[in-house]
Amino acid sequence: INPAFVGGTKRGPSPLLSRGFQRGPLPGEALKGWGRVSPLTLIPGQPRASKQDKMTHHCTKFSGHWKIIVFDEECFQGRRHEFTSECCNVMEFGFETVRSLRIESGAWVGYEHASYQGQQFVLERGEYPQCDAFGGSNAYHIERMTSFRPIACANHRECRMTIYERENFLGRKGELSDDYPSLQAMGWCNNEVGSLRIQSGAFVCYQYPGYRGYQYIMECDRHCGEYKHFREFGSHSQTPQIQSIRRIQQ
């Protein structure tokens, strides 16, 4: 399934609805503009987290290397610097901010502020000629990127996660291993996710259907793959609202 935005200028079709997501497909039915989507595996809620839930989370590292080239002016102009590992603050390299970039290899996550704080956004292989391209055409406006790091466990073919209705892994839960442009259309109970576990790979969760709104990068090798409360989704997270999810590609 092709997401609406993969790699800067490489955009696919986007079935966005300006007044909200209307009636979606039944499980297994083709979702217009996205192809066939696997239904969610829904499991009734438990009074407490089961022993089976407390599994060991395995992370399959990407076997290659990571490479990002950043520029301090739009359209790949001005000062440039090449990175193959994380950068806590671009100001340490003489940049006020990053205004364009190229992802040569691997998947990365960019942050609005230094020390991996503020709004976050996934960066997959491709070109990003302006700041507006960093978060994709469906994200909130982004004016700066000051820190970034590689997503070591991204593995598009082997991704598994479990989402829970309530915090601390309680309530109804659903098991995912695919891309979901609308969780509610595929049977999820509401427009929020209280907590989640990443068993393998990495996902990007979106505030709204159609891969729109704030992004939350979820990885199996961070927080031990466990996000007990929406405040652990990211420093910019204000609510547990998550309505679409997709796997991150290397």
From TrEMBL:
Chain segments annotated as transmembrane: none
The Beta/gamma crystallin 'Greek key' domain, residue ranges: 106-152, 159-200
InterPro entries xrefs: Beta/Gamma-Crystallin, Beta/gamma_crystallin, G_crystallin-like
GO biological process, one term: visual perception
Superkingdom field: Eukaryota
PROSITE patterns: CRYSTALLIN_BETA_GAMMA
An MF annotation (GO) of this entry: structural constituent of eye lens
Keyword terms, alphabetized: Eye lens protein, Repeat
The keyword Heme is annotated on this UniProt entry: no
Family: Belongs to the beta/gamma-crystallin family.
Oligomer status and interactors: Homo/heterodimer, or complexes of higher-order. The structure of beta-crystallin oligomers seems to be stabilized through interactions between the N-terminal arms.
Protein task: Crystallins are the dominant structural components of the vertebrate eye lens.
Name of the featured protein: Beta-crystallin A4
Gene source species: Coregonus suidteri
